[in-house]
Specification:
Length: 434
Amino acid sequence: MTASHLPYTRNGLKFFTKRGGLTSVDVEKICDRAAQKYLARKMGLGSRDTPPVVMRVDLMSAYSQHLRDIIKQRIAHPTHYDTPLKGFKVIVNAGNGCGGFFAWHVLEKLGADTTGSLHLEPDGMFPNHMPNPEDATAMSLTHDTVLAHDADLGVVFDTDVDRSGVVDDTGAAINGDRLIALMSAIVLDEHPGTTVVTDARASDGLTQFIASRGGQHCLYRVSYRNVIDKGVQLNTDGVETHLMMETTGHGALKENYFLDDGAYMVVKIVIEMVRMKLAGLEGGVGSLIMDLEEPAESVLLRLNILGEPKHAKQRGTMAVEAFKNYIQEDKLSGWVLDDCGDCSVGEGCLVDTNDHPIDVDAYMYRAKLYDENKRPLGMIHLRQSIHNPNIALNMQSYLPGGCKSMARDLHKRFLLASGVNEFLDTREVEKFVK
């Protein structure tokens, strides 16, 4: 049960089997069956169910032991096997979510010094900052604490620890594309040539980083469930895919049963940190991504969908499809729909072209803008929000000032010209371009 990044009033349930997390279609079937059983019971239909057998099981202790065993076995420290983190300082910022266990029951029991760790006690009102590896306050506080304590690593968890980010020993924040790059470097060293699946908000620089290490990059639809399901599908189709990560920090590994587990991601990074030290390598884990080329600018804007919420999904689809049609009909000269070119994914990272396509839960397209000399200026990703009645507009520019220029062009030649501004609130875009 979790609210994750949503307000604490919006709890939800996540379902898993030994084969990994369930899809939205699976969850809908479970909810339908539960509703039918509830209705039948209210109406007095059918026989009484046998009372369930209830057992109390300490799952967190077993899980913590599991993570400790993985770290000990894979580091195999030559002098102190049971305390391979002895001599390392690690700061954990749990943001008053449920990640404090990682400091107490994993790192400290393996010998790490976690002095200075932040907000380890759970508090669902989140009095300090949102527990989110994308949150600027969370990363800034962790940065300051890592430097103040001369720590080797800082760890930031979200509320339910299915997402994570880190801060290296220099205080540099490693989240978003940087975190995917770090995990890709680790996984490609273990599985040369493997495919890495990400959402289509990832940068061209990340694609080049993965390719430079011999990997394949599959860009796919936003939503961690879409990204993970695509990885499962590729493996089923015979395309070796060991890492699936969304730019929000959600990630899964084939070796970990395709579970979105932020603690497991950090375990992989901690193991790499110790291995590098044992090998006598200079620099912390951040040195593994020094050649990652990042956009000059990156901006996220949101356009609220006007009108009754029950019409939001339909109107969101209309807006995103109108954007695609405008480009295809050459009404937006210079804009080109993008795709990843591989992995049976095309048409703006939206449509599966294989025999068993994954269901579409929200529409989205990615497009690149070129100047009159065919030089790329940047890219945008336009999508329906899965959770809220709005359209998300992600922009990345290769040049300073490029995001404002792209937003101005998009506002004038699409948002106004197409008429979608009749049901989209464009004020955030208008404020940005002034």
